Structures are given as structure tokens and as C-alpha cells.
Amino acid sequence: MASFWWIKAVLWHKKMTTLPSLLNTYLEAITPALTKPFLDAPLMAIDLEMTGLDPIHDQVISIGLVPIINGVIPLDKAQHMMISISGSVGQSATVHGIVDNQLHMALTLAEAIDWFLSKTKGYILVAHHAPLDIQFIQQQLIRCFGQSIPLVFIDTLAIEKKRCLMQQPVLKEGSLRLNASRTRYRLPVYSAHNALIDALSCAELLLAQVSAMGDIKKLSVKDLINVSR
């Protein structure tokens, strides 16, 4: 996890630049969450489905959001949105199962980003292998606003890697994948696969991870967070 003061410095430095009002408001809203106890911190598990793994050239086609409030997952507040893209989903459909005709009535990228910012404002983002999702989100911000902002996040994969390396020096290939990580905490493996289910899986994994750390009431969110540049 990154130094808390380094995270604050990154956010402060960006606030000193000229930002579109929507991005400036989003950046300001995250500050109160940074020093909260874990159980009090507003968290939002996210997952993206994309046409590929290159944030510059590939496109986001769906986003799943699952909040964690006071250490509880309110399923009635979970949301999933499809996003229209330029061109075809191509061979990526074999991974996420989304085909072109499902995106005909989907949100535009601008609508999707507006929705994402409104739903996650004030929340610390949570994802499994978070840097990939964060890079894609930041690239979408650049496409919509011409610039991006730092995003504060918790990476459940990084947490799991650290925990596993404390027990064994070499990790097996694939041992840090989402389902493999869930299995170590005796969490069920969901047969369905989409951005919403994966966001839920990530949220459940985080709660299991922090529970295994010991007294969750003494855990501060600043011990887990990182920030993108």
C-alpha cells in the first residue's frame, strides 16, 4: 500500500491544476474518506468488461458497481450498466459473453462516465487487479474531458499477494485470480460471469480479507489504499 502522505500529496497537487468542475468536485469528495476507520469508510467495488486489455486502444463495454457500507454489502444498491462502443466487440465476446446487439441501447461513453462519477463520488474504489480497471477509467476520463484525475483505490489482488507471500515464498500461476483467492476464504465461486457478479465477488473477498487480518474495528482504510497518478 502507498504512503498515506504520498496519496494526499498526489491529490493535493492535482487540485492545484485547472479541472472541469465535475472532476474537481469528484476529487474534493474523496478527501473525508481517507482517514476513516475501515468500517466507516464508503467503499465501492467495481469491475469492468472490456474489448481487450489495452486501455489506450480497447473500450469499456460494461461496468458493475457494488457498494460496501459499514462493512455490509447492500445488494439493492448494486448497479450494472452497458456502454455502446465504436465498432464490434469482436473476439472479446468469448470472454465476457456480451455481443454487439446487446449494446445497441446502451449508454454512450459520456453518459456512462457521468453515471460512474455520480455513483462513486466520495467512495474509495475497490477492484481485483485494480490498476487495470483504474487505467481504463482514467482513459475514459481523458476521452470525455481531455484529462484525468488521481483515483484512490484498494486492490484485493495486492492484499492477497501480500498475505500469500507471508506464508510461502513462491506463488503458483493463477493463484491470485479472483476465484482462486475467494476459495482460500471458503467463499462460493459464482457460475455466472459479468461485471456485476465480479464486482460483488470482489466486495465479498475484501470483507473476508480484512476479517482474516484480526480486529477489523482497529483497521484504518489508509492502511489499504493506493492512488493512481
Automatic annotation (TrEMBL):
Recorded GO terms, molecular function?
Answer: 3'-5' exonuclease activity; nucleic acid binding
Top-level taxon of origin? Bacteria
Name the keywords, alphabetized: Exonuclease, Hydrolase, Nuclease
Q: Which SUPFAM superfamilies match?
A: Ribonuclease H-like (SSF53098)
Recorded coiled-coil stretches:
none
Keyword Aminoacyl-tRNA synthetase carried by entry: no
> What processes does the entry annotate via GO biological process terms?
DNA metabolic process
* Gene Ontology cellular component list: cytosol
Q: Which residues form the Exonuclease domain?
A: 42-215
Name under which the protein is recorded: Exonuclease, RNase T and DNA polymerase III
- The species this protein belongs to is Shewanella frigidimarina (strain NCIMB 400)
